[in-house]
Design goal:
six-stranded mixed beta sheet, five-stranded antiparallel beta sheet, mainly beta, Rossmann fold, 419 residues
């Protein structure tokens, strides 16, 4: 495989009409040559691509205060700026960094948030910038941010008539991509363990589908399903103790649950229809899955204690690939009604909306804050990713410079939000 890494390139395509104006002041740096990352720029880019914020560009800043007492508040109010972010990065004698940040409420003329990080290695500076972005997002929206998270995705490149696939894991903004697996055979359905330490996925390295679980630190890689027939669609239970799978080892494609400690299998669907793409409810008590038992694919829910099955999707003739938001409110699915789009069912109100307007949309995956979802699409004949807010009002495109990208999976929080 070529050694080039597939860094995602992000294009902001749409934001909220009433995005919040905010100013991010360049951080005060005692020794600029020693600081390898521009934290203020990372924070600005994070907030902008969320769609909820409209950061001022650096040339629009009327001044660059570094302390609360230096702020001329009327100057910022004339620009309709409600909040200012400022901070500092200080190299320490041992090659580490101390970081301070302050979010200032211009209307109240006081600090809304003040935090300090100490003894940070240079390779973790971007992560701290993402943490700061998460803190700001939470303070101003009431929803935890999802910037300090990771994405998994599969890239495909053609070289000398051969296809080369790579399963990559990157930061949520596409930086720091790390290859998990490279293969000349397709890779599908990456699924994060709840603790973010393992990945289950489908590979065809042996010439047929197998399900593999791999530790992301590289310490272990294990094939857990290589039965005759189909081995596909792995999905971790919320507690990480079980994995739902689609297997056809008994002749028909059904859903099984594997105990990850004992590897014992439990068959949970027994139907002549094709039943696949299971996803767990956040409480772990039920599965949503795709079945064509009514003729065309639709979404059903099975209660694991009783085995009761009920149909969930009723809009349109085709609904597949269900994914539920971590807060349990929304069920995303691939919906077809003159084209494949991402549909969103509000499980609280039973309202259904199509939230995309792209081409051949597939593979939805929610951010851990339930506010956004990533999905794969086809644009100009190329496989790309897109991110859309659950209300459909903000979106962005994620692509690779060379090749195609598919099969996205948004990882869990690296650090659990403080509130």
């Amino acid at each position: 495989m070529p050694s080039a890494q597939a860094t995602l390139i992000i294009e902001i395509s749409e934001g909220y009409e009433n995005a919040l104006p905010i100013a991010i002041i360049p951080f005060q740096v005692a020794q600029p040559g020693l600081v390898p990352e521009n934290l203020a720029q990372i924070i600005q880019q994070n907030l902008r691509r969320s769609g909820r914020f409209a950061p001022l560009s650096e040339v629009q800043l009327p001044s660059r205060p570094t302390q609360l007492e230096n702020i001329v508040f009327n100057q910022w109010r004339s620009l309709d700026v409600d909040h200012i972010v400022m901070g500092s990065v200080t190299p320490t004698a041992n090659g580490l960094f101390d970081i301070e940040v302050r979010l200032v409420d211009v209307l109240r003329r006081q600090s809304a948030l003040a935090k300090r990080w100490t003894q940070i290695p240079r390779q973790q500076l971007r992560q701290v910038a993402h943490q700061i972005s998460d803190e700001i997002y939470l303070e101003l929206t009431g929803v935890p941010g999802a910037f300090n998270t990771r994405l998994a995705y599969v890239t495909m490149r053609e070289r000398s008539g051969e296809r080369h696939y790579s399963l990559e894991v990157s930061d949520s903004d596409g930086y720091n991509p790390q290859p998990i697996l490279r293969s000349k055979m397709p890779i599908m359905s990456p699924s994060w363990s709840p603790d973010g330490k393992k990945m289950a996925y489908v590979t065809f390295e042996s010439g047929r589908s197998t399900v593999v679980v791999q530790n992301l630190d590289g310490s272990r890689r294990e094939t857990i399903a290589e039965f005759p027939g189909i081995n596909s669609a792995p999905a971790w239970s919320p507690d990480g103790k079980n994995l739902a799978l689609t297997l056809s080892k008994d002749g028909n494609a059904d859903i099984y649950i594997m105990n990850m400690q004992t590897r014992a299998l439990r068959k949970v669907t027994r139907h002549w229809a094709i039943e696949t793409e299971a996803t767990w409810a956040p409480d772990g008590k039920s599965l949503y899955f795709n079945s064509d038992r009514r003729g065309q694919p639709q979404i059903f829910q099975m209660m694991l204690d009783s085995g009761e099955v009920k149909r969930i999707s009723f809009e349109g003739g085709y609904n597949a690939n269900p994914k539920i938001s971590p807060n349990g409110r929304h069920l995303a699915m691939v919906h077809s009604n003159n084209g494949f789009q991402i549909g969103l069912l509000d499980l609280y109100s039973n309202q259904f909306n199509v939230v995309t307007n792209t081409f051949l949309s597939e593979s939805p995956s929610f951010a851990p804050n339930s506010d956004m979802l990533v999905y794969a699409m086809n644009r100009n004949g190329l496989g790309q990713l897109a991110v859309v807010s659950v209300d459909g009002r903000a979106s962005q495109i994620l692509r690779v410079e060379d090749g195609q990208v598919r099969e996205p999976a948004w990882g869990p929080y690296l650090v659990t939000p403080s509130r």
